[in-house]
Amino acid sequence: MSMLRERLNRLKKKDSTGSLPTETASEMGPPDGKESQADPSGHSTMLPQEEEKGPSAEGWERMGVQYESNEWGSFLIRKRTYPADYLHGRYPIGDLYRVCPSLSAMAGTEGGQELHPEELLFFDTETTGLGIGAGNVPFMLGMGYYRSGAFVVEQMLIRNPAEEVAMLAYFNRLLLRFSCLVTFNGRTFDWPIVRNRFVLNRMELEREPSVQLDFLYASRSLWRNTLPACRLGIVEESRLGHTRVDDVPGSLAPTLYFRYLSEGDPAVLAGVLDHNEQDVLSLAGLAIHFGRALRGELELTGMEAEELYRLGKWLDRLGCAEQAAHAFERLLQCSSREADEFRLELAALYKKKGDYDSALALWKGLAAGAASTGLTAIEPFIELAKYYEHKVKDYGTALAYAEEAYQIAWRRETLVRRHQKRQPVLEDIRKRIERLKLKELNYALAELYNEEMG
């Protein structure tokens, strides 16, 4: 209704001045006698309207916010530029120019086409709610992009729902300059919300990004168990070395926006603007971090065994075999007992890839360690029994490993209380032993028969 009312009011103004209804704002010049000035991007930056002068306009000005207009109306915008040597945490923001081509492995670009930093649009929204339904409005769009070695952050803000169309129109044109959208949970939240707003406002989205990099998925692949949570704030602090001071949590953004709508005080949204800007900068920092990981430039010393395993598995999945091998080698050097679990996982990965030599070495090492320390891990013994039974056809060796697994499983079962449900592991191993004994007997009979017939 607010959009329809705004259009009707616009038509009334045009009719009262004798203008034709088909004339656009660009043909008529600045509406209502407002002065305008051009910015380097070619858009018109509106000076505050007469009725907006005073404390409100001064509040926006103190935060570096300006008025922007197009043929759909006006909204607010803040632009800041960061030089290449600006440090966001431990990384200079311009380092992406060096490592960006490696991100092509994450993007899955056709033909291995390399990404360039100036093709990437870093994107984050602040909304009036948490869902992606029609009632959730993005009142702030934060964007970052590289130009001439520097990093530019643009933040668009609407003072009321009637300004949404103008903001979306500006974003629509800006999006044409980029082929890749970089977000954190944007694939299922930020981007669907914005796309829905285009539909609800009956606006055509001129072009969707051909590539989307959602860093939430990579973060979960690497740190889902080694970090308390995979929220952007936790990831940036632990992996980028960036700590926010007096940050406004993103969960408070809707409440603060509604408070601004009620009070009209721009200062209410100062913290939300800063929070959104930090999110955009952290997206660039994460792009650098993942780019360095894909190039094998991360410092592996001090990483936990699980992170080393998940890093290697992630790199291997993206086709970075050499970098994955370095992470796995570091995992094999870990002496902690917790590392055995991930060495077993690594052996399973080698088995899946058909690298039985590497898997066999890990299984034997784990089996020797279990025998010497009295651990209750039966998996390496079972895997060795399977290997010698099915791959080597050495039933005697397979039987020895199966019997060792049975002894360990039996000791483990004796520790289980009577009222607890027992696992069918012992029965499975017992059946394997019986089968192996029968195979070994048949093999011995066959050998004896061949000797007699020979």
Can you give a write-up of this model?
The chain is α+β, with helices and mostly antiparallel strands and 454 residues long. It has three domains: 1-33, no CATH class; 34-293, Nucleotidyltransferase, domain 5 (2-Layer Sandwich), CATH 3.30.420.10; 338-453, Serine Threonine Protein Phosphatase 5, Tetratricopeptide repeat. Helix content is 52%, strand content 13%. It has helices at 2-16, 25-28, 55-62, 96-99, 104-107, 164-175, 186-200, 215-223, 232-240, 253-263, 270-294, 305-317, 321-333, 339-353, 356-373, 379-392, 395-414, 425-453; strands spanning 36-38, 44-46, 65-70, 73-82, 87-88, 91-92, 120-127, 138-147, 150-157, 180-183, 211-214. The strands form two sheets. It has a nine-stranded mixed β-sheet with strand order 1-2-3-4-9-8-7-10-11, with helices on both faces. Strands 5-6 form a two-stranded antiparallel sheet. Helix 7 links the parallel strand 10 and strand 11 (211-214). Helix 14 runs antiparallel to helix 15. The longest helix has 29 residues, at 425-453. The N and C termini lie far apart (97 Å). Pfam families: RNase_H_2 (PF13482). Residues 38-47 have a biased composition (Polar residues). InterPro entries: RNaseH-like_sf, RNaseH_sf, TPR-like_helical_dom_sf, YprB_RNase_H-like_dom. This is Ribonuclease H-like domain-containing protein.
